Amino acid sequence: MDAPLILTTTIIPTEIDKEALNVDTMNQYPVSFYEGTMKRPIAKEATKSLGVETVETRLENGINAFEGFGYTHETTDACQSPKDNPYNTLESMKEKTLMQFELGTVLRAVDNEIQAGKLINRHLIRDMRGNLRAYGQQKTRCTKCGASYRRVPIAGKCINVIKKDAENPLTGEIEDQICNHKLILTVHQGSVEKYDGLIEYIIDKYGCDDYTDNLYRLVSSWVADTFSSDEENTQRTFDDF
Q1: DSSP alpha helices (H): ranges in the chain?
Q2: Is 6 domain-assigned?
């Protein structure tokens, strides 16, 4: 989980995560709701038009949004749930994603092409772009003393002073003791490329909208250029240009 940036002691319903406002508060759904779902409306619009009360509609109508919530099924423990599910039994993100699309092939309400576009555009592509940006702006870290550097020192090793005015065991001179240990990257190539092959596989098998397809091709080319290994290492003179 990400570390919280802000801790709030007083909850203001209008300032919380919008997803929490979509929770319905009814003890039972009206017949109009089931009849209306036959027309396959958009879920966000259907909650209001088909008579389903949510936290958001409570706020709009001036009803208390902190208490009086209904529920449809009794339970003795709100934390009861299956201990194992596909998300924690499947090992890789690729397996989890492909299982999701396998389920989409048997559900009439799911269009895998639309699902692919939303998954790629809203999650996978953003992850690749964010990690690529982090890779370009990352610091290097010493594996011994933990010192970090925005730019790699000219020496190529850690130059952090770990002990001042120490005696050199070889010369006997008093000098600062430098760490002089190796530096490593904090963001690695694998974290940037981890979804590249998965996205290409999803697009090839299930398709997606043109915008998402073109966006992926562009981001993928950025990643490929960043880690290209066929760059020229031969020094050129002015006459070569």
Answers
A1: 31-37, 43-49, 55-60, 86-89, 93-106, 112-119, 125-137, 189-193, 196-206, 210-226
A2: no
Domain finish residue from 75, 92, 118: 75
Residue showing tokens 């073109």: 214
Per the structure block, which two tokens stand in for 97?
């994603």
Half-sphere exposure of 133 (CA within 13 A, CB side): 6
Q: How many independent structural domains does the chain possess?
A: 2
- Per-residue pLDDT of 163-199, as tens digits, reads 887 777 767 777 778 888 888 888 888 889 889 999 9
Query: What is the C-alpha separation between 101 and 91, in angstroms, rounded?
Result: 16
Q: How far apart are CA 212 and CA 219, in angstroms?
A: 10
Is residue 199 in a domain? no
Residue 160 structural domain: 142-186
Half-sphere exposure of 42 (CA within 13 A, CB side): 2
pTM to 2 decimal places? 0.63
Domain for residue 92, yes or no?
no
> What one-character DSSP code corresponds to residue 178?
E
Q: Is 156 helix (H, G, I), strand (E, B) or coil?
A: coil
Which of 75, 99, 114 finishes a domain? 75
Q: Which two tokens stand for residue 199?
A: 């996205």
Is residue 62 situated within a structural domain? yes
